[in-house]
Write a structure and sequence with these properties.
This protein is α/β, with parallel strands linked by helices. About 45% of the residues lie in helices and about 15% in strands. The strands form five sheets. A five-stranded parallel β-sheet has the order 3-6-9-1-10. Strands 2-11 form a two-stranded parallel ribbon. Strands 4-5 form a two-stranded antiparallel ribbon. A hairpin with a 2-residue loop joins β7 (about 165) and β8 (about 170-175). The two termini are about 20 Å apart.
Length: about 350
């Protein structure tokens, strides 16, 4: 198992959501009517992929996971060695969505006030005023997030979870949509700090980026050394349309069997012996939290939305399970001594838990 509609890119105006689908006589929603609404509302997905593809060669999995985070209203953490287009992909996606964007370059000397803002004394008015930091944007790129110490990371927790920031005695709401897209280098590199577990759990997805294929790298080479202007990235969707799409993502139908499958996957990270995986118990220090259960459901619904479907299938869950679960499993010393990774554990769980 591997770890891991053609349209012109015109700016799409937001459209009000159609009334909720009435339940059919059997108690289930009208799937066909819901699918028709989703097909219309998801029309911006392919143009978004197209715009990002102008700057980012390959890395289709990374781009799709960024779109899932965008639609599921969840923060995304990208991990990989330098030079794999992590920052470029996030910057390009930000330009393709008509929202405010800010970039924070995390360094060892960064202060919390450099992220959220601070109080400044105005001598002329003899009073303090609030100077808002770069966190006040729709899309926030936290570049090389693991190069700053824990004190700075803690400044992001309130923003990521509560969508608000407290400066002095005042609390300010963050704009909507609000999304933290972070990049980090592998923690074994020098000059990096492991992220606090509480903060890692706030990321809906952790996506590990691998090197491009030989063919993709040749395309990158040609694009970078070619003469002439680079392709311009055009905005294709407004914030209002994105917020409407997020509401529709939550309406995607999920059968009770799929819900039980999600619960079983998450439970297997806590009590693997219940799924016939007793040999994993000494390797798992702690399992995924209920936030992972919610994240799996939302990411699965976003995946179905991107496919133009009004219902979730088990393959939607399996395709996002690695990115939702890998950073929420704690390894024991025994697992580290045997060089067993979270990815191996998630793979065994996916292979063992029965698919509905």
């Amino acid at each position: 198992m591997e770890f891991t509609r053609t349209m012109t890119p015109d700016l799409m105006e937001s459209q009000p959501l159609a009334p909720s689908v009435d339940p059919a006589p059997n108690g289930h929603p009208d799937i066909q009517a819901l699918t028709d609404r989703i097909a219309a509302a998801s029309a911006f997905v392919d143009p978004l992929r197209h715009e990002v593809g102008k700057a980012v060669v390959g890395q289709k999995g990374m781009v799709d996971h960024l779109l899932i985070g965008l639609l599921a209203d969840g923060h995304v953490l990208l991990e990989g060695v330098p030079g794999l287009a992590k920052t470029l992909a996030i910057q390009t996606l930000s330009r393709a969505v008509a929202v405010d964007f800010s970039r924070i370059q995390f360094t060892p000397d960064l202060l919390p006030a450099d992220v959220v803002g601070t109080m400044i004394y105005n001598q002329k008015e003899e009073a303090f005023s609030v100077s808002k930091g770069p966190i006040f944007a729709h899309f926030v790129l936290a570049d090389e997030i693991n190069r700053a110490p824990a004190k700075v990371q803690s400044a992001l927790l309130e923003a990521m979870q509560e969508r608000q920031v407290t400066i002095g005695s005042e609390t300010f709401p963050l704009p909507s949509p609000f999304l933290v897209l972070a990049t980090q280098n592998p923690v074994e590199q020098e000059g990096t700090y492991p992220l606090p577990e509480a903060q890692v759990d706030r990321f809906l997805l952790k996506v590990v980026i691998d090197y491009p294929t030989a063919e993709e790298e040749q395309q990158i080479l040609r694009a970078q050394v070619a003469s002439g202007p680079r392709p311009a990235i055009q905005p294709v969707v407004k914030a209002e349309a994105l917020l409407a799409a997020r509401e529709l993502v939550r309406e995607v139908y999920m059968d009770e069997k799929v819900e039980r499958y999600i619960v079983q996957l998450v439970n297997a990270t806590r009590r693997p012996e219940n799924q016939g995986l007793g040999h994993l118990k000494p390797l798992i220090g702690f399992g995924a939290s209920p936030r992972a259960t919610i994240g799996l459901a939302l990411a699965g619904k976003a995946k179905a939305f991107m496919a133009g479907r009004g219902y979730v299938i088990p393959e939607d869950i399996r395709s996002v399970a690695m990115s939702v679960l890998r950073h929420r499993i704690g390894l024991t010393f025994e697992a580290e001594a045997e060089e067993i990774s979270q990815e191996q554990i998630v793979t065994e769980i996916l292979d063992q838990v029965q698919v509905p």
